[in-house]
């Protein structure tokens, strides 16, 4: 996921809303006063710079700087040690771009191993990330964990009928079509299970998945297959297993934590999530927490998810949603489509009219300039998901992603691989370490955390950021 904060009017004078280390430290001295929370340098495009463009002429140097600023971390100042580390990062980035085999232009399913082995990836992997704001709970752990842990647990049964493969936990299977997986395992079956858990294929993914519907069909089957691994079958009912789901969620948090993500915000099954969150925060005090989109201290909002092109539009359930809006903030998926003038891209308008706080994907937003301006005015954040958009066949080459045309103030990625691809494929070639600092500020600013937790998160992040800088300062290479 990429997280874009659309620039907005800060107040009636169109003053810049800012969020920076300096303001953070000032706020710690002034007891975190509410009206200062948004004053963080570098969160939004500097409107003063854009206004100055009008007085110097479109061809003047200020115009060029203003055109570059949204993609280059404008407003962020690096100290001497950060500048030295930035030189290492930019050298690696330019080498990746110039070597001729540009990975973000190729299908992620084909090149992700190469991305993982890149110098830029290794450096970004060590970088503290801030908050992950667009995450689905049934897809938060690695394939390795699902396969090597969940599929080796007791009482897991397998059913194989033709092309159909199902795994389910039973105390006692309902019929003889189910065999204990531990008795049935062999290399062929294990390989089949792995294929069922992943979109990866041996052949060319563009051939196997020629269009969005084809890849969505497999995508949904993975979710269904994986869901059965955290449920217990009781008669005709498939019930969530508290023990299994707790372990699964804890592992998901651990993997985010290992990627230097400080905060996480997905959806559903609040009691189990809260228990896991409390356990994880005890084990890792420098992890700020998680919130559910779906107790104000834990469940913070509501969303609807599906393949938009074949699902019901938001307008069909607008009356029911309006009844909820006084109680729960909305964080809607909308505009995850290539269509123009359809119910799918018009979901964007309904999401805005329903007062959504953030928009998931917003891929089609650039086709609606007036709506884009409305999003800016209302200070609605857009969660861009470029790898998902590529894998689900909305865009083939990341350089053509609509995010490159939006005058955004920042982007945030919630995984190391996505961070790397956004940094190389979507952002300007000039985008450097400054943009990552802005991404973190945006992620914390637009999270559903309380004010106190936001300051706690920024405090923890600053310490981790300095450790990251110290690791690379004075080096000339990046260790594998």
UniProtKB/TrEMBL annotation:
Top-level division of the source organism's lineage = Eukaryota
What SUPFAM superfamilies does its record include?
A: Metallo-dependent hydrolases
Adenosine/AMP deaminase N-terminal domain: from which residue to which, for each copy? 73-124
Q: Which residues form the Adenosine deaminase domain?
A: 291-407
Q: Tell me its cofactors.
A: Zn(2+)
Q: Which GO terms describe its biological process?
A: adenosine catabolic process; inosine biosynthetic process
Q: Which UniProt keywords apply?
A: Hydrolase, Metal-binding
One protein family per Pfam? A_deaminase_N
- Does this entry carry the keyword Hydrolase? yes
Q: Which GO terms describe its molecular function?
A: adenosine deaminase activity; metal ion binding
State the InterPro entries in the record. Answer: A_deaminase_dom, A_deaminase_N, Ado/ade_deaminase, Metal_Hydrolase
Q: Which GO cellular component terms, listed alphabetically, does the Swiss-Prot or TrEMBL entry include? A: extracellular space
**What is this protein's record name?**
Adenosine deaminase
